[in-house]
């Protein structure tokens, strides 16, 4: 692999505020939609009452332990750390005129700590959460006024951190809103398609406004979008399977098309028409959408297959998407199919489509790790998974794809998004906490910690082609 990764490739890891920080009411923080989902994205929406508790309330206590964790990331040689700002730390209800200084000060401390080690922040403005106050009083992203509230928030953090943060993302896995509308856009799960797409439209306009604000306030910075990279293959060579695969891939590529090209593609106009979906789009919206992102970022965990006759097949469940299993692939403990070559294919598809730099901002293996009697954790399965995916990244770079960096998901164990579990572990660093919230929160290096350190230090030369 020597020589295939660019000299300034951004190696690192990715986390999210609501999955690591804890301190869910500290220093004036308001309630977020994530705080009302104590069992994760697919759990019930539960109002908070005095004295109740959930695992995300403490998570891994990154809010207080970040110096220790940043030092461990630096020991691995991280060039970049992706995390998010909790919107509710800055505007607790979402609609305030003035920001919460204590929340802003926390991220100042965090970014300063990263700067001590030369770790560049890659910051997501909204990662699977928004102020619950905006949901309660305005109906979330269903209300056009939320665009203004988001722009105020974005401009506030751009101004505050313009000298500390040069890489930004707008919305995490923005296409996920089609499948989990409360998490994505603050709408009830049973909302109809017109309501969901209207909320998504407001979010796309807000994203474009944030891009414009970033270009004005941080002129030397770069801002991208973030997609759930749910690449799909036709199950057979039947033309019907191919067409259905194209249709389903467009369900999520649509979000990239709007943010990278600056307008709604023609195929979506037909989709809206044939499905009776009404979306109010103003001429001002169309002008705003022309402000396009600088790079494409995405998550990749698994691929899937599509058939025009799905009833006869069982589906494989990912974090959010249901897919027909590929008979040629193995699966993880959670039923996620493992397809390293799919990452190379996806990189080529996105680069061919957009001709913009790409950033892999989530990729990893969730597994049940075992702590040995001597405290060691031999997670060779994780090493093999990541190694094989990174080999394919190198191949894509050799194909001519411009790849900015790679941040593995969950470099430290965290609370999973889907079901709020600790037992589904992704990290190079073990955190002593279980699904019931018990444990010391002690950090411990796994075998993969040392493996990833070698990968970074060698700029990928230590990877092994195991094909």
Give an overview of the whole structure.
By secondary structure, the protein is an alpha/beta fold. The protein is 38% helix and 13% strand. The chain has helices at residues 17-20, 62-76, 87-90, 101-116, 132-138, 145-161, 181-185, 193-217, 239-261, 266-274, 283-288, 340-354, 380-399, 447-457, and strands spanning 10-14, 80-84, 120-126, 167-171, 222-228, 232-234, 295-299, 304-306, 316-317, 322-323, 358-362, 403-409, 429-431, 443-445. The chain has an eight-stranded parallel beta barrel with strand order 1-2-3-4-5-7-11-12, surrounded by five helices. Strands 6-8 form a two-stranded parallel ribbon. A two-stranded antiparallel sheet has the order 9-10. Helix 12 (340-354) runs parallel beside helix 13. The longest helix is centred in the middle third of the chain and has 25 residues, at 193-217. The two termini are 13 Å apart.
Shape: globular
Uncertain ranges: none
* Order of the strands making up the biggest sheet: 1-2-3-4-5-7-11-12
Q: What percentage of the residues does DSSP assign to strands (E)?
A: 5-15%
Please give the structural blueprint.
Layout: E1 10-14, H1 17-20, H2 62-76, E2 80-84, H3 87-90, H4 101-116, E3 120-126, H5 132-138, H6 145-161, E4 167-171, H7 181-185, H8 193-217, E5 222-228, E6 232-234, H9 239-261, H10 266-274, H11 283-288, E7 295-299, E8 304-306, E9 316-317, E10 322-323, H12 340-354, E11 358-362, H13 380-399, E12 403-409, E13 429-431, E14 443-445, H14 447-457
Parallel strand pairs: 1-2, 1-12, 2-3, 3-4, 4-5, 5-7, 6-8, 7-11, 11-12
Antiparallel strand pairs: 9-10, 13-14
Helix pairs in contact: 2-4, 6-8, 12-13
């Amino acid at each position: 692999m020597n020589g295939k990764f660019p000299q300034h490739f951004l190696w690192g890891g990715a986390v999210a505020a609501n999955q690591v920080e804890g301190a869910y009411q500290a220093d004036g923080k308001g309630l977020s939609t994530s705080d009302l989902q104590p069992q994760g994205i697919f759990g019930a929406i539960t109002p908070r009452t005095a004295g109740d508790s959930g695992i995300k309330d403490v998570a891994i206590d990154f809010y207080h332990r970040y110096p220790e964790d940043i030092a461990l990331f630096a020991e691995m040689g991280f060039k970049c750390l992706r995390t998010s700002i909790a919107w509710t730390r800055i505007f607790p209800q979402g609609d305030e005129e003035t920001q919460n200084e204590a929340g802003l000060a926390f991220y100042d401390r965090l970014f300063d700590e990263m700067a001590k080690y030369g770790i560049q922040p890659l910051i997501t403005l909204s990662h699977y959460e928004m102020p619950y106050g905006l949901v309660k009083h305005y109906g979330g992203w269903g209300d056009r006024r939320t665009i203004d509230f988001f722009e105020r928030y974005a401009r506030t953090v751009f101004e505050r951190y313009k000298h500390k943060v040069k890489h930004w993302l707008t919305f995490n896995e923005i296409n996920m809103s089609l499948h989990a509308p409360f998490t994505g856009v603050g709408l009830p799960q049973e909302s109809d398609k017109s309501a969901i797409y209207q909320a998504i439209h407001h979010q796309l306009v807000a994203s474009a406004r944030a891009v414009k604000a970033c270009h004005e306030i941080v002129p030397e910075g770069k801002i991208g979008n973030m997609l759930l990279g749910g690449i799909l293959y036709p199950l057979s060579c039947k033309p019907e399977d191919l067409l259905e695969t194209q249709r389903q891939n467009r369900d999520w590529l649509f979000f990239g098309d709007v943010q990278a090209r600056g307008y709604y593609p023609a195929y979506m106009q037909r989709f809206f028409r044939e499905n009776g979906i009404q979306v109010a789009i103003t001429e001002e919206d169309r002008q705003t959408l022309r402000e396009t992102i600088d790079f494409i970022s995405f998550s990749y965990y698994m691929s899937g297959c599509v058939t025009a006759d799905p009833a006869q097949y069982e589906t494989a469940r990912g974090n959010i998407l249901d897919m027909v299993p590929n008979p040629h692939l193995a699966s993880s403990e959670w039923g996620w199919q493992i397809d390293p070559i799919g990452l190379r294919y996806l990189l080529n598809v996105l680069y061919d489509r957009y001709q913009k730099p790409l950033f892999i901002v989530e990729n990893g293996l969730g597994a049940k790790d075992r702590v040995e009697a001597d405290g060691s954790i031999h997670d060779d399965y994780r090493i093999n998974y990541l190694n094989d995916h990174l080999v394919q990244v190198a191949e894509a770079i050799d194909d001519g794809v411009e790849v900015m960096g790679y941040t593995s998901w969950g470099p430290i164990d965290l609370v999973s998004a889907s079901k709020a579990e600790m037992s589904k572990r992704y990290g190079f660093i073990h955190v002593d906490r279980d699904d019931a919230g018990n444990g010391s929160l002690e950090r411990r290096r796994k075998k993969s910690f040392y493996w990833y350190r070698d990968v970074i230090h060698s700029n990928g030369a230590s990877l092994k082609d195991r094909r």
